[in-house]
Amino acid sequence: MSEAIIVALITAGASVVCQVIISVKNAQRTEAQQAADRKLLEYKIDKLCEKQEKYNNLQERVALSERDIRVANHRIDDLERKVETYDI
């Protein structure tokens, strides 16, 4: 074999090795970025769930308050009727 073929084979082999190294590094970077993005997304979803839970609790309290107000109004109406019947 001539020296030119040997040099070409060495150059080609070095190029392949360099491309493999670059591909592995890019895959590692991509994986790390995806992991970071996944953590951020999970964090945001957790915060959104917390806000939704607070909103749901508020809605429940408002519904209970409205029911309590209706009950109180009925009791007041009943008391007013009783007072009217005793008024002579």
Provide structural commentary:
The protein is 95% helix and 0% strand. The chain is an all-alpha fold and 88 residues long.
- Cα gyration radius (Å): 38 Å
Helices, by number, come to: 1
Q: How widely separated are the two ends? A: 130 Å
Helix content percent band = over 70%
Question: Which strand-content bin applies to the residues?
Answer: under 5%
Strand segment tally: 0
Low-confidence stretches: none
Oligomer: single chain
List the helices and strands and how they pair.
Layout: H1 3-86
Key structural traits:
mainly alpha; 88 residues; 1 helix
Summarize this entry quickly.
It contains 1 helix and no strands. Helix content is 95%, strand content 0%.
